[in-house]
Design a protein that fits this description.
The complex is a heterodimer of chains A (270) and B (267). Chain A is α/β, with parallel strands linked by helices. Chain A has 7 helices and 10 strands. The mean pLDDT of chain A is 89. The model of chain B has no long low-confidence stretch (mean pLDDT 91). Classes of the chains: A alpha/beta (270), B mainly alpha (267).
């Protein structure tokens, strides 16, 4: 793409993307037609109540699922199935348990045609980035949950993808580990400026990390509000205690609460 | 860790005590009472000592013209060939069924229809087809192991975490690489479980197969000794089969532990 300097590219675009599960009377509309532009170098967080279709949206961009309507573009090209240019980090249970940590991270480079030696060198580099060099020859089950997620992040980064898709990667971790990893992700993002689509339940996490926060409604998922916090650019971990942060958090909390109640009501009347 | 180790040691002592009590009970009811006769007549249950003597005698003289090791060897041969053949055929077929809907649609009916059938019931038919030689015995054992191994392999494939497969796809792995480096290893714990189950079943089938139309093998030895009321030989035969089954299971377990070190653990 040749755009004037200073004008950001659209890295990925959802155009009227909708998703319906099932057919006939049992069909469930998971997503109303949605439009989102993910700009290059942006860190986009999707927040919303359970079942609002956040993960579906991510899966469609990842190429794991197809949209019922609309289309998803990356660099202007329609998404057709999974692609190593889009790295995915999952919540848990996605590591290859039978491979050492190093082999897990080297898997991607080997898959895209690098030699074994080259792949291991790359893997070593990314393990260093997430601070796990001394655990290279351990197996995932020998690591704590937080370390496992760091392996997952290193594995996704090892292919040097153009966009990272992260589906609640820290949801299963305890609060302290989560905060440390959030700082680490922020550091990695600030240094690599990789485009990120991040899904979370946590408003704080979204505000702390994202340049764009998109609040979704209860099912069927629609975009309820968009925010552009500036905290992601801060290097200060105590930014979460600032007044601006608190205000935006309260505002999003109010929006999400309405939606969570609506979602609960849906569950109850189904 | 220390308390877990202590608990394990305590359990081992209790195991040993329980075993000793059983053995003492056996000695008690087979030792002649002051009146002259033991509680249980030797014809029904000989004493441990005399069973041991019989074992030594069988090791020296063999049984019906064949040495004890020949009997054990032929039993192991029948089991081993049937087991290896079933694993080599059934596991790949099961994996294929797990990967391929068409393969599953083709192979499911014959396997599901024959699965509940008691395989020993087929032995008379197999004897007509394959004669009374080794083939009919090997086939009957293999037939019993086949559905367990293939269905388990298929289910193991179906049980591979979707996220692991998606992760591999997103990393750019080809279908072949996903199978070799993700689906196959992820299925191994399930496959090993079925292999251990099939060892137990295979030994059972071996006994069944040796009860008819043969003149060798450990189960044959026990069966024919029963015709002559040689209770000692029967018990030696039973114990050898028990040790055989136990050893094979231990072997499978140690291989499993070595290969599937991640079994039951998540990461």
């Amino acid at each position: 793409m040749t755009l004037p300097a200073g004008v950001a590219n659209v890295k990925a675009r959802f155009e009227g993307v909708a998703k319906r599960f099932g057919s006939g009377a049992d069909a469930v509309q998971a997503l109303e037609p949605i439009d989102i532009d993910i700009m290059e170098n942006a860190f986009v967080c999707l927040v919303g109540p359970s079942g609002c279709g956040k993960t579906t949206l991510l899966n469609i961009l990842a190429g794991f699922e197809t949209a019922t309507a609309g289309r998803v573009l990356m660099d202007g090209e329609p998404v057709q199935g999974p692609d190593p240019r889009r790295g995915v980090v999952f919540q848990q249970g996605a590591l290859f348990t039978w491979m050492s940590v190093l082999d897990n991270v080297a898997f991607g480079p080997i898959a895209i045609g690098k030699s074994r030696a080259e792949a291991k060198a790359i893997a070593g580099q990314y393990l260093e980035m997430v601070g796990l060099t001394s655990f290279s020859h351990r197996y995932p089950y020998e690591l704590s949950g937080g370390m496992q997620q760091r392996v997952g992040i290193a594995r996704a980064l090892a292919n040097d993808p153009e966009i990272l898709l992260m589906d609640e990667p820290f949801a299963a971790l305890d609060a302290q580990t989560r905060e440390l990893l959030q700082e680490e992700i922020k550091r990695i993002w600030q240094s690599t400026r990789k485009t990120v689509l991040w899904i979370t339940h946590s408003i704080e996490e979204a505000l702390f990390l994202a340049t764009d926060v998109i609040v979704m409604s209860a099912r069927p998922g629609r975009i309820k509000a968009r925010f552009r916090p500036a905290f992601a650019l801060s290097k200060d971990p105590t930014v979460v205690a600032s007044v601006d942060f608190m205000q935006m958090k309260a505002e999003i909390f109010g929006l999400l609460r309405e939606e969570a109640l609506a979602a609960q009501h849906q569950e109850a009347t189904r | 860790m220390k308390t877990a180790g202590a608990a394990a040691r305590r359990s081992r002592w209790i195991n040993l005590a329980s075993f000793t009590v059983l053995l003492l009970l056996w000695v008690a009811i087979t030792t002649p009472l002051p009146g002259g006769e033991p509680l249980v007549a030797p014809l029904f249950l000989p004493s441990p000592g005399s069973v041991f003597d019989t074992l030594l005698m069988l090791m020296r003289n063999g049984y019906q013209g064949k040495s004890l090791s020949v009997h054990i060897g032929i039993s192991l041969f029948r089991f081993g060939v049937a087991f290896v053949l079933s694993v080599l055929v059934a596991v790949p077929l099961g994996l294929w069924m797990g990967m391929n809907q068409t393969a599953k649609a083709i192979l499911d009916p014959p396997i599901e229809i024959t699965r509940p059938m008691p395989k020993l019931a087929l032995l008379p038919l197999l004897i007509i087809w394959f004669g009374i030689g080794e083939v009919s015995k090997i086939v009957i054992i293999a037939l019993a192991l086949f559905p367990i191994l293939s269905i388990s392999a298929m289910q193991a494939v179906a049980g591979v975490g979707r996220r692991k497969i998606q992760a591999a796809m997103a990393l750019g792995a080809s279908k072949g690489m996903i199978f070799r480096r993700v689906i196959f290893p992820a299925s191994l714990p399930g496959i090993f479980t079925s292999i251990r189950v099939s060892i137990g079943l295979g030994v059972t089938m071996l006994v069944g197969a040796e009860l008819i139309a043969t003149s060798s093998g450990i189960a044959y030895m026990a069966m024919s000794a029963s015709d002559f009321l040689l209770t000692n030989v029967v018990i030696v035969g039973v114990l050898i089969m028990a040790v055989l089954g136990y050893t094979l299971d231990l072997l499978a377990r140690s291989v499993e532990k070595r290969i599937v070190h991640w079994g039951g653990k998540e990461g």
